Amino acid sequence: MGSTSKPRVIIVGGGFGGLTAAQALKDAPVDVTVLDRSNHHLFQPLLYQVAMAGLSPADIAAPIRSIVGSQQNTRVLLTSVDGVDLDHRLVHTSDGPMPYDFLILAAGARTSYFGHDDTWGPHALGLKSLDDAVEIRRRVLMAFEAAEKEPDAARREALLTFVVIGGGPTGVELAGGLCELSRFVLDRDFQAIRGGHARVLLVEAGDRVLPSMDPALSKNATAELRRLGVEVRTGARVTNLDETGVWLGTNKVSSATIMWAAGVRASPLAEKLGVPLDRGGRVMVEKDCSLPGHPEVFCIGDMANHSHQTGQPLPGVSPVAMQQARYVARLVETAPQGEVRPAFEYVDKGSMATIGRSAAVVEMGKLRLTGLTAWVAWLAVHIWYLIGFKNRMVVMLTWAWSYLTYKRGARLITGGLKEIPAMAVQRKPGAKAASADATAAPPA
Amino acid sequence: MGSTSKPRVIIVGGGFGGLTAAQALKDAPVDVTVLDRSNHHLFQPLLYQVAMAGLSPADIAAPIRSIVGSQQNTRVLLTSVDGVDLDHRLVHTSDGPMPYDFLILAAGARTSYFGHDDTWGPHALGLKSLDDAVEIRRRVLMAFEAAEKEPDAARREALLTFVVIGGGPTGVELAGGLCELSRFVLDRDFQAIRGGHARVLLVEAGDRVLPSMDPALSKNATAELRRLGVEVRTGARVTNLDETGVWLGTNKVSSATIMWAAGVRASPLAEKLGVPLDRGGRVMVEKDCSLPGHPEVFCIGDMANHSHQTGQPLPGVSPVAMQQARYVARLVETAPQGEVRPAFEYVDKGSMATIGRSAAVVEMGKLRLTGLTAWVAWLAVHIWYLIGFKNRMVVMLTWAWSYLTYKRGARLITGGLKEIPAMAVQRKPGAKAASADATAAPPA
Question: Which fold does the domain A117-262+357-425 belong to in CATH?
Answer without folding.
Answer: FAD/NAD(P)-binding domain (3.50.50)
